[in-house]
Design brief:
Blueprint lengths: L1 H9 L3 H33 L17 H10 L3 H10 L12 H25 L3 E9 L4 E11 L5 E13 L6 E4 L1
Antiparallel strand pairs: 1-2, 2-3, 3-4
Helix pairs in contact: 2-3, 2-5, 3-4
Length: about 180
């Protein structure tokens, strides 16, 4: 047993090479996610659409999300190499560039923002809920919920919390909810 310990301390272990490779790969994907999440946060803050008509790598109409990543890759060699390697790999390959992953990140960020707003409202001394409805010519009613509150610093804030579309059928009491 003592001989085994002495030998293992002198030479590089196989599992240490595997661990080093795994740590390197983990660092790589963290760098990718950092850039992708920064792009998603930027587009969300600006309130612009993410997706385009054709999301192929060579398309000129691939949407703001992929276009921003392409633009960023002009100045970021790491992202440029990632896009060259993973952009056209298709389904079943991890790249974090697909619209499904983007939608999932948007949902996660949205839940965090919602939790932050709810926490601010709970800590507020005063708040009000404004509910407004606007029907259009085809009798489609859009119901919106807005919360106004005074933050702990005394600043008045207004947050749009949700929107629901209702179809009212006149002459009956039934309402179909599409959220």
């Amino acid at each position: 047993m003592c001989t085994l310990y002495k030998r293992s301390s002198k030479f590089i272990k196989i599992d240490s090479q595997q661990l080093e490779k795994r740590e390197h790969e983990e660092l790589y994907w963290r760098k990718v996610l950092k850039r992708i999440l920064s792009t998603i946060k930027l587009l969300s803050r600006l309130g612009v659409a993410f997706r385009g008509h054709d999301e192929g790598q060579e398309s000129t109409r691939k949407g703001n999300y992929l276009t921003c990543l392409d633009y960023l890759s002009e100045y970021d060699d790491f992202l440029k190499l990632h896009l060259q390697k993973y952009a056209n790999r298709g389904r079943g390959n991890v790249s974090y560039l697909s619209h499904q992953i983007c939608d999932e990140f948007i949902s996660i960020i949205g839940k965090q923002v919602k939790a932050h707003i709810i926490n601010e409202i709970k800590n507020a001394k005063y708040y009000s809920i404004v509910i407004d409805s606007t029907p259009d010519f085809s009798h489609v009613d859009q119901l919106t919920f807005v919360v106004r509150y005074v933050s702990s610093s005394g600043e008045i804030k207004e947050r749009f919390t949700r929107s629901r579309i209702y179809f009212f059928i006149f002459g009956t009491t039934s309402i179909r909810n599409f959220s």
